[in-house]
Amino acid sequence: MAEFDPYHLSPESIKEPPESFAGRLQHLGPGFILSASIVGSGELIATTTLGAQAGFVTFWVILVSCFLKVAVQVEIAKHTILTGETAMQILNKLPGRRFGEANWSVWAMFFMIILKLFQVGGIVGGTAIILNIVFPQIAISAWAFIVATTVALMIFRGHYKVIERFSLLMIVFFTLFTALSVFFLQYTSYDFSWNQLTSGLQFQLPKETVIYAIGAFGITGVAGDEIIYYNYWCLEKGYARYVGPKEDTMEWRNRAKGWINTMILDAVVAMIIYTFVTALFYILGAAVLYEQGKLPAGYEMIETLSVIYTESLGARAKIIYLVGAFFVLFSTLFASLASWTRLITDIFGQLKWIDFSRLSERSKWVAILAWVIPILWAILFLFIKLPVIMIFSGGIVGAFILFLIVFATFDVRYRRIKTHFVPGVIYDIILWISILSICLVGVYGVWKLI
Question: Region 51-68: what's the mean pLDDT?
Answer without folding.
Answer: 82
